[in-house]
Amino acid sequence: MPRKKLPVGQIGTIRYEEVGYRRWRALAYVRTFADKRIRVTGTGRTKSDAEATLKANANDRVFENAGAIIDGNTTLQELLELTVKAMRAGTIGNKKLRIQSVNTYGRQLSLFEGARGERAIGNLRLCECDKSIIANWLVKLSERTPANAKLAKILLSRAYDLTVVHGVNVWPINPTHGVKLRANDSEESEPVALSLAEIQQIWENVQSWQTPYKQTDLVGIVGALIATGFRPSEVLALQWSDFQLDAKPKAKATLSGAIVRQDGKLVRQGYTKTNSGFRTVTLPDWFRDMLIERLVNADNVLVFPNSRGGFLDIVNVRRQFREARGEVFSHVKFKSFRSSVATAIENVDGVEEAARQLGHASPAITGRYYVKRAADAGDHTAVLEMFAPAQSSQ
Q1: What is the rounded CA–CA span in Å between residue 383 and residue 61?
Q2: Is the entire prediction scored with pTM above 0.85?
Q3: What is the pLDDT of residues 343-376, one digit of tens each?
Q4: Are residues 219 and 113 part of one domain?
Q5: What are phi and psi of 75, to 5 degrees?
Q6: Which of 302, 306, 312, 354 is positioned for an S-S bond with 342, CB 3.0–4.6 A?
Q7: Over the Cα atoms of the chain, what is R_g?
Q8: What count of Cα atoms within 13 Å lies in the side-chain half-sphere of residue 364?
């Protein structure tokens, strides 16, 4: 009768040998996740010590996965780097992510290295990095930066999926399952809706900042954000061929791409975030006039190139806007113009038209994240009528 196979990870019968004065060796077999039966040993001053060493050695060896790129000795950092590569290639998850999203997750890798002051759990081997370590690390991270903790949790979850694909059962279940993170206050904050007076003041501040020595056309970029409701990365990708400045009765612009960072380089992605994002918007006359002024001296296919004729980096442009906007508007970000456009259109033409302008497939997205609304308190005038002033007898 053939010998019954050991279950994966289980240690067989342990034998003990006395190998010297107060020195014992424990010997046994264990089956690895590569489906190999290997012998492991451990030594110690007593049988118990030798057995404990044997079990620790067996735990290390059981995750060896012959021929695979991941095993128990792979560090968490190596696993996460492989995960980002798989996300970029679209070989993990339900759908291939946009390069912007993959880059966002890739930026979280430095957290696990300890580059931003966190504990460097990325240096731990997978056989050492259990759920309690990961859960504690995520919770501590969320206390300092909830947004990064949320992204790190998703990345770890995708890393777990990758271990399953490669047959490495280092975590019995997803180590992020059930981990409660601190809520990100900014996620619950209301969208900023700038008033006409505020926009006019920001205009003045930006125009004062702009000098002939400043290469970035910040006035034009802010104008494009206000005139279209496009995202900043979309505005920086605008080409002169995207505009129909002589269209009647109004000039138009067609959104067709965005500037993204890919493999460390800025590139123009020739498609929009969603299918509904590919759209043509009608431009206000003041912005058409602004573009016509710039077109006279244009020597680049891009409307807003950098000083060398290439793509502007949104990080640098945001920094310049922070310098220009004025201290009183420290709460205003580039995305504030998008929500201001949405709110202004919704107030006049309704949320459906605001959704069309912003390129949302559903008005619900526009209403939830981009339109600032006052809560409806209901009609209580029947009660409030009792407070009417008494009629004068005269």
Answers
A1: 77
A2: no
A3: 888 888 888 877 788 776 665 555 555 555 555 5
A4: no
A5: -80, 160
A6: 354
A7: 30
A8: 1
